[in-house]
Amino acid sequence: MASASVRAEPMQTAPRTSPDLRIPLLDLDRPGFEALAAGWGFKPFHGRNLFRWLHKHGVSELDAMSDLSKALRERLATETRIDLPRVAVEKPSADGTIKWLLDLHDGQRVETVYIPEESRSTLCVSSQVGCALDCRFCATARQGFSRNLSTGEIIGQVWHATRALGKPPTNIVMMGMGEPLANFDAVVKAMAIMQDDFAYMLAKSRVTLSTSGIVPNIYRLAEVSEVSLAVSLHAPDNALRDQIVPINRKYPLEQLIPACKAYLRGEPRRRITWEYVMLKDVNDSDRQAKALIRLLEGTPSKVNLIPFNPFPNSGFETSDPERIETFRQRLKRSGLVATTRKTRGEEIAAACGQLVGQVQNRRLPRAGAQRPVSIGLSM
After folding, report:
1. pLDDT tier, 354 (very low <50, low <70, confident <90, very high otherwise)
2. Quick one: which H or E segment has residue 293?
3. Which band of pLDDT confidence, cut at 50, 70 and 90, is reported for residue 20?
4. What's the average model confidence in pLDDT over 82-95?
5. What is the DSSP string of 38-53?
6. Does the pLDDT value for residue 198 go beyond 60?
7. What is the pLDDT of residues 244-253, one digit of tens each?
8. Mean pLDDT for the chain?
9. CA distances from 337 to 191, 302, 305 (A)
10. Which residues of 272-297 are buried (b: 16+ CB within 10 A; e: fewer)?
11. Distance between CA 112 and CA 124 in Å, rounded?
12. pLDDT for the residue 377
């Protein structure tokens, strides 16, 4: 387990004075490493060995990679770079949750959260700096959007957590800052590295991508990946979802539900996980429970009810525990698998809707746009 201390370093906001044209190794998947080695006249397996050193063994010093030739290591030293994440703040919680605030090269920051349980551990990973989807109950959206993360910045979060904890997490969820399907190529490549036997060896069922419902990219994802799919639903009808999840105006439920069914490819053991934040007197009535049951009929589903974690000026309250349980029981009686998510890391601001990052919002005027923010995170 990581240290219980909080570490802070001055934030570096100055950009690089000149572009670094060396190849960023963390941006490459295993075929990319093999192609790099082959392109330099070495055998592809040398690239595979390099990939294994970096990810499976967590070794970033070239001289320690003993089975690579001196010629290859010299070439790597001059023509590549390894951009490892830099921890600005590490905060542990009494329940074992750890939150890391990570500095990026351009002064932006993202957060990664580790959640231990008795039989598993979950790492919640960010895919963007901020988010552009404007979900009303999410603090991330209120703070704006800056940019997508690179593959290296995504997998770097996993690299850091694995090194800090001494072993890889058993599960990874793309549920941190951002909408993963809005950063499709980088996210898909990062998830492939997570599953690679020469890297983190995660089964496809142990990597989950959470989306608010970018329908065309759900179909694209089905063509290239078999990771688990979670959908931020939060409302059982278009009228309410249009208000609280604005992407629904572009991709309404009549398009979203068929896309999710298609993603399952008719495999009876797979399910869509529907994330449903419980908002008092907004989406938690018996009538809405019945509507949700009708909406999901015929779709292999698990409904994850998430107590809302308030943030300043959110305009929402958390549903009462009794109301959440009544809602859950109605779903269960209909045959749906329904669970209530336990809030973790609340006292270190690592629970849903409480994370802290730094976003330079491209949708705001340049002056004064960079500021600390609270980030919405579903765990």
Report:
1. very low
2. helix 286-296
3. confident
4. 93
5. HHTTS-HHHHHHHHHH
6. yes
7. 999 999 999 9
8. 87
9. 26, 5, 11
10. bbbbbbbbeebbbeeebbebbbebbe
11. 6
12. 34
Instruction: Report the C-alpha gap between 157 and 345 in whole angstroms.
Output: 18
Tokens of 102: 């990570």
Concerning whether 79 is annotated as a catalytic residue, the answer is no
Could you report the per-residue pLDDT of 137-179, keeping only the tens digit for each? 777 767 788 899 999 999 999 999 999 999 999 999 999 999 9
Spatial distance between the Cα atoms of 284 and 305, rounded to a whole number of angstroms? 10
Looking up tokens 């399910």 gives 271
What is the rounded CA–CA span in Å between residue 299 and residue 218? 15
Q: What digits encode the pLDDT tens for the residues 295-310?
A: 999 999 999 999 998 8
CA separation, residue 330 to residues 230, 319, 321 (Å): 21, 16, 14
Q: Is the Cβ–Cβ distance between 75 and 40 less than 8 Å?
A: yes
Specify whether 111 is catalytic.
yes
Task: Locate 224 and state its tokens.
Answer: 């290239």
Class of residue 37 by CB neighbours under 10 A (exposed 0-12, middle 13-18, buried 19+): buried
- Marked catalytic residue, from 34, 90, 111, 179: 111
Q: Which of 124, 135, 260, 352 is catalytic?
A: 352
